[in-house]
Amino acid sequence: MNKEDLLNGFFENSLTEEDQMRFENLLKEDADFQQDFEFQRELQRAIKKGKRAETKAFLADINGDKIPHKTKVFKLNKYWAAASIVFLLALAYTFFQNKGVDNDKLYATYFEPYANVVKPINRGVSLENMEDRAFSAYESGEYEEALRLFQSMDANQAAPYINFYKGISLMELERYDEAIDRFESYLDSQGNLSSRAYWYLALSHLKKGEKDETIRYLEMLITKADFKRVDAQKLLDKLD
Amino acid sequence: MIANDLQIISQLKIGDRQTLKKVYLEYKVAFFNFASRYDLGQEALEDVYQDVILVINEKALSGKMDELSCSLKTYVFSVGKYMVFEKLRKKKRVVAVDSDYVFDNHDSALIDDVLNEDEMSPYQQLLYANFSKLSGTCQELIKLFYYQGLTIEEIVEAQGYDNKNVVKSQKSRCLRALKDLIKNNE
Fold it and tell me: Cβ contacts (< 8 Å) between B170 and chain A: which residues?
């Protein structure tokens, strides 16, 4: 068990008695180890406090909801009624004009490339095979290069997840039709990133302004998986 | 456990705010009715009740509520009673000892932690502010491990990572990124 595992074990509460002893000795004798530990422990405290404060603010707000708003009743005269209809029509017009812009904004809010969860890349180690090189490019944000390398791999031998990462790279390059195609192929292979594929399919269709398809994939995601469920629900609410 | 409770717990586990709101409202009146006899004051009671809901939320997020051995309502009241009595004990008011709580050591640690929480130190504020600047993937991973208390193994399963090593190296990269952000801030 290395030092990193010992630290993880501490936070997981999974250290054996023997490991616990080693852990305590290192804390006393190894300044770097102690520093790492303090950093992670402070981070944990900070996040707990931050998240709790956010939750409490949310709960306090619920009470606010329940206070009935006093509604003012006033009579509209004909002039004001006519003026407000014109205003509402103007508002509706601008709203619908802006529909396309809204999709872009929503897309920008929710899209971020999926992490490389399949091939850990060790910096400094020479990257010999194509897949490693492709993921290295992908992680560095060089999506054109990543796509080129992904595509140069033999389609019959490449792992199914390659299609998924090709899809993300294509989204980064704003080639949404091809991205959709890749994600659909990935879904056919029934890999374990399929809930992620639904999410990115929804976003690709969103960017193309295809609301029905976006909603369809978001709903599939919500019924089938936990991934991004909260975001998916939020996005659905905004689209409805 | 009641089927409805299971549904609620699985929604809390994925961080669903509407469900949290539902739980908060569900037991509020009954809890206030029960606790008002201890004369803590309305404001302190609201504070205690919010803390109770925090505990429920965090226990669900950690996945440790999946095998709850009683109804959610019983659990809410058990945590609530404990918290009310702790508040009274601190005020040096003696109350009849009620020892049939339904929670284990892990629960007690969590409850005491929530009850005795102090303000963020300046350093913690700095950490939290910079944590919020990390990529979504890093925030999620750090939140799962340090806040929700999932193990590396559980994160592999929940997030679809390939194996534990990927999670570990991703996590250490995220921590390094956070350290760098802080360094650049100084």
Answer: 115, 117, 120
